[in-house]
Design a protein that fits this description.
Elements: H1 2-15, H2 20-34, H3 43-47, H4 54-58, H5 67-77, E1 88-90, H6 99-102, E2 107-111, E3 114-117
Antiparallel strand pairs: 1-3, 2-3
Helix pairs in contact: 1-2, 1-5, 2-5
């Protein structure tokens, strides 16, 4: 489906090089946003919301996803969520947006190189 393809592209663009669990966690955040009243109502709108995902801004969303990204996307769409409901994540080593550092401390956990927050 189009949602599976789009989610796999975001996972690949945002979490390429992470473990399967790290990829799944990124996918789960996207799905959690889709299910939250705080975000748009379609996967496309969630992903293309301005400044929501770095891979959209820098074009990495256009890279061809690998099989593991597709598997993580399918599992995330099926409700598997290792973040326990997180709506945000960032990589503290590469994040350039100070917005994430100004958020209230709703730290949940670190999976791979990403910090996940509610």
């Amino acid at each position: 489906s189009e949602d599976l393809e789009l989610l796999a592209r975001v996972i690949h663009g945002e979490a390429r090089g992470e473990s399967y669990l790290g990829k799944l966690a990124v996918g789960a955040v996207v799905v959690n946003r889709l299910n939250s009243p705080l975000f748009p109502d379609t996967l496309y709108e969630v992903i293309y919301e301005p400044w929501a995902f770095t891979c959209v801004q820098d074009g990495q969303i256009n890279l061809e996803p690998d099989e593991e990204s597709y598997r993580a996307a399918m599992d995330a769409l099926n409700g598997i969520d290792p973040t326990n409901g997180c709506l945000f994540y960032y990589n503290p080593k590469t994040a350039t947006s100070r917005w994430m550092f100004k958020r209230p401390t709703d730290y949940t956990e670190t999976i791979g190189n990403h910090v996940f927050m509610k």
